[in-house]
Amino acid sequence: MGSFLEKIAKRIANAKGGHSAVVDGLTMTGDTPNAVVINPDIQMRTEGFKSFLDRGELLNEKQNMEGNIGSEKKGIRHLNNYVLPYMSDKHRQQVAHNFTQHISSGKIKSGNGSNYNPDQNTNTHTLASDANGHKAGTSVRVIGARHDNEGKIFVQTAKHGEVQMSKLNKPEELKKPNITQGGFTVEDKLAKNLGGTAAGSTGTAHDFSYRGEEGGIRGKARKIETDQPYLRGEAKQNKANMGVSSLKFDKDKKKWDFTNEHLRDTFAKATHPDSGLPVLEHLNKFHSNGVIPNGFTASAAPGTVRSYLRGINANSLHLHRTESAGKRKEAIDHGTTYSIGDDNTFKGKTKMSHLANEDLDKLDGKLTVESTTTGSTRAAHKPSFKYFKEYADNSVTNPDQHVDLTREDHAKEVRTRLDDHIAGRITAAKASRNTPSPAPAASENKPAASSSEPERHHTLFWGRANPPHAGHEKAYNVVKKVARQNGGTSSIVLSRTQDNKNNPLSPEQKEKHAKRAFPDVNTSVADPEHNGLLQQLSKIHEQGVTHLHMVAGSDQHKKYSDLINRYNGVKGAHGYYNFKNVTMHSAGERDPDAEGTAGVSATTQRMHAAAGRNKEFAKNAPSTMKPAHVKELYNDVRSGMSGPSATAKKIIKKAK
Q1: Strand 366-369, strand 296-299: pairing
Q2: Closest CA to 6 of 202, 276, 140
Q3: In this structure, what are the phi and psi dihedrals at residue 524, rounded to the nearest 5 degrees?
Q4: Cβ contact 233:206 at 8 Å
């Protein structure tokens, strides 16, 4: 929920004391050193993970102020909230003049600040860090503020010189409550009411989830490929981002790009307010030097919220408003929980109201891009405040039609309905698997799987990968993308074929290298009992899959489609499968396992290995593999081709 800081802090809290938490499919523990992948852009390595956790720094509220204006003007807000109240009218108007470009005319009212003290010996703030020869904790009196051309905010003090505003602590009397901790409270309420533990939404763990009495162990965050919860929820408070990505400049290509693969396409289509161009097109045209001197806010592209929710594999959304009481208003602490998406099986069956795709699109708001001089910055999507408020308030304004799962009574009723729904799906699935449809007559259409069983999608790539190379990486990326779009499980399964002609890697070597090359997908070599595509499909069908998504080179689509559909609903030596739908997805124009030397292929990689061209081999290896692992793959291929086969000798001779 909320920012990256909120998510990592929540997961760290869960991991304390030896308990485990799942982060993007990897397990963090409190007792052993770990390499912890937080997201595709950020990796933390700790000498002793528990010692890192015990610092507890990320769970504490940030005490100092923002030192830069920032694209979201957080620095300006801190200046208004924590500095200007302590200034005289004269100094306040001077600050208004200094910040004319960033603070609207009349925003700074005439008159002394609400906390101004005319006693010149009275201090207003303390230093958060050493500055101008003065130690952190030193008391100072602020009398002015300015900014430089790079957007840094500096504050003048009466006796301690000028300091950047980030070197000042927020005054205790004006400091606002910790918003992050408030977010945790909402998550914790949701998780507690559903019988689990909040873990932060990553795609493999969620802000809140529910498995049901029949669905497995409650509250455990596991890999989605093996055991995903039926209800997978994302929770958002007012002012929280719905999608964040790093934005980096490639000096060689002279191009900008977003690093979050889930959000790249929609973020790139946001419209720049001045040029009217898509954001990436604008940046590549006007900021081709890798510098963005001033941050900006763009209109988010349609589908941004849906891309974000699809990326974390959520099928439920809780929107929550929390506001402190004021002189003219009461405190606000309520929200509304929805099932989401046009293909959601819970729609209308759980007491939760529903947000269709067109409703989610109304939440698309503004994309803010922060300034940078280093070629690396951050982009964040803020949802539409109007629709966020409307959707969050629905459980209060229309309680008969909407529920708030932070309320225990609402959650209890939803749990009961979910249990009934889940139990019905499981019973139907078992019945369907125990009574397969009869084989069709030659003139009949193949029977579809039972319409009463639960909808389960699986994305599959079947191949040799001997050895894995960059072409297979394209297929791997398509498998991930299709699985995200359709939900369900995914796998890469490789044949056991081995010889020193075209298949130099043993099944054990192939599985080892493939797991390194394709880390985020369930990857394996076929077991001896299912050593063929049709046997694998029978195995997948036995696991309850109803919709098959097959990833292959475009040149193989007809071959695979004809083969799979020919035996759909037909018993045979391969076993039995009966999918409702078989959908082909392209991994590129060419089958990555095809023989020949055109482009990147297994043949060219074997030729490079045989000829000792390790640099060329490494260049065409999957980019997901570490250099040491590529070298090991190279050596294994060379070793596997060293047998007496005439074909192998011909390849080696040709390569030389």
Answers
A1: antiparallel
A2: 202
A3: -160, 165
A4: yes
Buried b (16+ CB within 10 A) or exposed e, 330-362: eebebbbbbbbbeebebbeebbbbbbeeebbbb
Q: Facing residues of 551 across strands? A: 461, 585
Neighbours of 29 (CB within 10 A): 16
Cα–Cα distance measured from residue 468 to residue 601, given in angstroms and rounded to the nearest whole number: 9
Output DSSP code: residue 478. H
The structure's pTM equals 0.49
User: Can you tell me the distance from the alpha carbon of 511 to that of 535, in angstroms, rounded to the nearest whole number?
Assistant: 19
Q: How many residues does the chain have?
A: 656
What is the residue type of 100?
Answer: T
- How distant is the alpha carbon of residue 477 from its chain centre? 15
- For residue 320, how many C-alpha atoms fall within 13 Å in the half-sphere facing its CB? 24
- C-alpha neighbours within 13 Å on the C-beta side of residue 337: 33
- Quick: pLDDT tens for 335-362: 999 999 988 887 877 889 999 999 999 9
CA pair distance 521, 458, nearest whole angstrom: 12
- Cα angle 556, 559, 562 (rounded to 5 degrees) comes to 140
Tell me the fold of 457-655. Answer: Rossmann fold (3.40.50)
pLDDT tens-digit readout, 127-178: 999 999 999 999 999 999 999 877 899 999 999 999 999 999 999 888 665 5
The phi and psi torsions of 182 (rounded to 5 degrees) equal -65, -40
Distance CA 240, CA 184 (A): 13
For the chain, residues classed under CATH 3.40.50.620 are: 457-655
